[in-house]
Amino acid sequence: MSSNPHQQAITQLEEVANVLRAQYPDKVAFNRIIDRLKNPDRVLETKLKVIMDDESEQEFTAFRSQHNNSRGPYKGGIRFHPNVSREEVIGLSTWMTWKCAVVGIPYGGGKGGISVNPHKLTMTELEKLSRAYARWLVNDIGPWLDVPAPDVNTTGQIMAWMVDEWQKLNLESGQPVQTNPLATFTGKPLELGGSAGREEATGLGGVYVLEKLAKELGWSRKQDVTIAIQGLGNVGYFFAEHADRLGYQVVAVSDSKGGVYVQGGLDPTKTMVCKKENGSVAGCLCTDQGCNLAHGRVITNEELLELEVDVLVPAALESVITADNADRVKAKVVLEMANGPVTPEADVILANKNILLIPDVLANAGGVSTSYFEWVQNLNGVTWSHEEVLGKLQPLMEQAFDQFWQLKAELNTTGRLAAYAIAVKRVVDNMLLRGNSDFPA
Ligand code: NAD
Known about the structure:
Layout: H1 5-20, H2 27-37, E1 42-51, E2 57-68, E3 74-80, H3 86-102, E4 109-114, H4 123-136, E5 146-150, H5 156-172, H6 198-217, E6 226-230, H7 234-245, E7 249-255, E8 258-261, H8 268-278, E9 286-287, E10 290-291, E11 297-299, H9 301-305, E12 311-314, E13 333-335, H10 344-352, E14 356-358, H11 360-363, H12 366-380, H13 386-411, H14 415-434
Parallel strand pairs: 3-4, 3-5, 6-7, 6-12, 12-13, 13-14
Antiparallel strand pairs: 1-2, 2-4, 7-8, 8-11, 9-10
The structure holds nicotinamide-adenine-dinucleotide (NAD).
């Protein structure tokens, strides 16, 4: 059993290496690169001390994993969650390397986090902790070195505090500032160098992928395509909203407290308004006629995963489709919008059931792609309009999908392996071109 995201990432890498190995005449060099990619270039870990509002001092364990930077600066979010661990940030940073490679943006992979429940902190404590994190990493991140962003439970405000702290320390160091300090973090508020379109980019990027897929599968009547979405947060909501706008039938959504099923399709916008008013989506049975319990039924998160729909979209957490429940998944397609929602054991079960999996590294890459656009704008001192940003995001996602779909057919393999084969090959080729000089003997 794959026990944690790092172990999962290793299992996936070994599988894809077995597919790619035949293409490389120098097997020794190839194997050394694959071995190296099983672990990050480095993992930083510390205890951050914060003076709390009651004057007590608390310690929080913090991490930054820098997986690989052969294609560009390390790139990846910072997560504030009690479950953050060394193995988790390593796994997530590895997936970031593949994600940036699969859509062809010039970044490597990184991920950071603090083991904390941020909902238990006051705003002052949250700001102190965020600044302490940026202070700790002052020499290890930067526009051309490692570019963090928000992840679970981190926000534009947190990026604003971090960028401010990082910039202040850099100015104090007396080093001439060579590039715009704002380019050190992405996912910033619009007023502070953020990019138009970033908020909706991950969900919308997934819908661009869905559109391409629907064409390939010959799903010409969108109104007949049913979709269930686990997690009505940032990613799940914007996915639902754009899918609904284009005419797909979103029949079920959920959050941590439960879900709803509405035959004939729900109204994502009204559902979100209701969720905000009531604190949960369970009970929000909303169509364009308004919200009414008679419109459908309340379901559990487990039921949502097992619905008979065309597309199942896990958009909440890691490892929700496992060896225990994969057999009960009835969707035709699983479109992974969360990071790592399907375990490697479940991958095999889904493949045996002929369920098509569109992997996270492709499906949710719209977020990091728009982060890349934010960084480009910051480095060039320009601001693009919403239309300009989406005008760049759509072809980028569509091209990535076309390359993925073509290779999937050529290799006659699963969606996961096809996307990983593209990504890992790009990284391996890059490292081969660089040569082996920095390899351990
Ligand atoms: P979010 O915090 O905005 O939303 C998460 C949603 O999941 C919430 O609605 C929450 O209630 C729900 N949830 C939590 N536990 C659940 C459970 N047990 N069952 C069902 N729902 C549950 O987070 P987000 O930014 O939307 O991220 C969701 C996923 O997408 C994460 O895996 C994240 O790493 C990934 N992701 C996010 C982005 C981005 O740009 N935000 C980009 C790429 C990947």
